[in-house]
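Hi everyone,

Forwarding the result from last night's run.
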Amino acid sequence: MTQQRWPSEWMRGVLSLAVLRVLADGPTYGYAIASTLEESGLGAVKGGTLYPLLSRLEAAGHVTIEWRAGEGGPGRKYFALTDAGRDHLDREAAHWRAFTQTTSDFIDPRRDDA
């Protein structure tokens, strides 16, 4: 399957919401977050983009961080959604749906101008 390459400005607009959505399924580590995003069709997200975003989400109180020992390897930093993060995800997802609907209605050349 060929992976769609989305414009970077689109990804910047939705990446924090997408990361929070991944974390809504439960605590996980950075590489797994990036893999889930890629498997979901959003494309590859580099660590230099993902980890600063996770730090900003932690600073905002939306994510907590916990180090867990690795099984036969190095430990991993796990990220988990907080209650405030879940509320933020719910609100922002609703805003995103409204925005994408408005945008789709606007750019569709077949839209009704009445």
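Residues 29 and 72 are 17 Å apart (CA to CA).

Cheers,
N.
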